Amino acid sequence: MAKIVSIHSFRGGTGKSNISANVAALLAKDGNRVGVVDTDINSPGIHVLFGMDEEEMTTSLNDYLWDKCSIEEAAYPVGARIGKGEVFPIGGEIYLVPSSIRAGDITRVLREGYDVGLLNDGFNALIERLKLDYLIIDTHPGLNEETLLSVAISDVLIIILRPDQQDFQGTAVTVDVARKLDVPNLFLVINKALTSYDFEALRKQVEAIYNCKVAAILPLSEDVARLQSSDIFTLRYPDHPFTRSIQNVVALIKAV
Ligand SMILES: Nc1ncnc2c1ncn2[C@@H]1O[C@H](COP(=O)(O)OP(=O)(O)OP(=O)(O)O)[C@@H](O)[C@H]1O
Ligand SMILES: [Mg+2]
Fold this sequence. Notes:
42% helix; binds magnesium ion; 11 helices; binds adenosine-5'-triphosphate; 8 strands; globular; alpha/beta; eight-stranded mixed sheet; single chain; Rossmann fold
């Protein structure tokens, strides 16, 4: 049975797309078949981490939602593009379903909307037809219909927050929703923590606030920022503290 993992945050810019892509890459490095779907239809971006540009995305999640193609026709194998030609073990691959970055497509979604139920059908079809071990869903920040759907169907929900009072408040809302929707495995990941912070004290503080496990605390890192989402950090820097923290997240996902 494939595991569906949603990566979410209440506020924007917390690191969802970077963390989704890195988690996917480490799972593929272990020989897993991993799907990644960009459900951030309003402001897509994760395709950049996998080295895809607009011209190459001849089909996208939008085309599937508009009944122009099947979901697997919008799935691109991207393993060979990342980590300077990373070779995954046999079977290990990442299939990315990008959202369209074309202005006309984004405005059409805003204008006309789409049937959110189709997303669920698409996720299931993708898992079955591509024989996936994991499906990673990168989401739009805040709460909207796609988010509620992806949260409701997830085996694992990871909520990202920065050590910031605005994030703390927003995370309470998302945790509340996740509990109402009975998500079986809920973890928090703290990203962009200043290295001068006491990580253990921060972990205890956040776990006490939400009564929820903190899967990892990722440091605010100049090295991550310098890569500018142009590749998968954990493949480029396997021994970096950021990578070790992402490995903890991956270990928890595998263990559930
Ligand atoms: N630990 C980190 N240290 C430094 N920079 C980071 C870290 N994590 C992410 N970033 C940077 O923060 C920016 C936002 O990251 P990302 O796009 O992954 O966030 P997001 O939550 O997906 O954003 P959005 O809500 O807009 O989709 C990127 O420039 C990324 O390189
Ligand atoms: Mg994003």
